[in-house]
Amino acid sequence: MDFTVVDLGKENEAENSSLEESTSIFGGVEVEEPYVGMEFDSEEAAKKFYVEYARRVGFVVRIMQRRRSGIDGRTLARRLGCNKQGFSPNNKGTLGSEKKPRPSAREGCNATILVKLEKSGKWVVTRFIKDHNHLLNANANGFSTTGDKDKKIAELAMELELQNQLCAAYREKLLSFIKTVEEQTEELSTKIKLIVENIRRAESEMQKCSQNR
């Protein structure tokens, strides 16, 4: 998803960032953070890392601006950020009257990361703003509290038990159906056998009658 092309070349300052590898503790689990100078083999690799970092920390990534080459149109820089960045504009009706305001997910959050394509072919983090101006939703395991984690485990265990019961019921029905088919097949086979024997007996009687004549 592309937005208006902007010049990212002037943004070389690294706010709230580190010049060396760093980690933070979220929910009791150590999470590797981006840092200025961090390298990736591709834009997609950088994006994947930041999305996974966001998931573990507890926010959702918004794909933001990019800068393209004026020669071949390839991407030279990409900005990713928190989905609560910016503010939603006021909506107005066709006659100029204001609509009833809708709840907005944007809170003006400045958390962002900027990666640029260097001459070496590597994508390098040149800007990283870590802090959010809102509460994060989850810890490294995807749960806000230990209680939520235990509750989720209990729900999954109950769902698994239900599925096991359904499987057992389906298996019983299937076995019953197979048994019914086998019984009907055996009964049909017996009837066919009797019919064949009756036909043969009738043919034999007809032959005897012909001979007696």
Polypeptide structure, described:
There is one protein chain. This protein has helices at residues 43-57, 146-212; strands at residues 22-26, 29-33, 39-40, 61-68, 75-82, 112-117, 123-129. By secondary structure, the chain is α+β, with helices and mostly antiparallel strands. A five-stranded antiparallel β-sheet has the order 3-7-6-5-4, covered by helices on one side. Strand 1 and strand 2 (29-33) form a beta hairpin. The longest helix has 67 residues, at 146-212. It starts with 21 loop residues before the first strand and ends with a helix. Mean pLDDT is 76; it is low at 1-20, 91-95 and 139-145.
Summarize the structure.
InterPro entries: FAR1_DNA_bnd_dom. The protein is an alpha+beta fold. Helices cover 38% and strands 19% of the residues.
Secondary-structure map:
Blueprint: E1 22-26, E2 29-33, E3 39-40, H1 43-57, E4 61-68, E5 75-82, E6 112-117, E7 123-129, H2 146-212
Antiparallel strand pairs: 1-2, 3-7, 4-5, 5-6, 6-7
Strand order of the largest sheet: 3-7-6-5-4
Strand fraction band?
Answer: 15-25%
Q: Enumerate how many helices there are, as a single number.
A: 2
Question: What's the total count of β strands?
Answer: 7
Largest sheet: 5 strands, antiparallel
Helix content: 25-40%
N-end to C-end Cα span: 98 Å
Category from helices, strands and their pairing:
alpha+beta
Provide the residue-averaged pLDDT.
76
Report the order of strands and helices: EEEHEEEEH
- Low-confidence region ranges: 1-20, 91-95, 139-145
Keywords: Coiled coil
InterPro entries: FAR1_DNA_bnd_dom
Protein name: FAR1 domain-containing protein
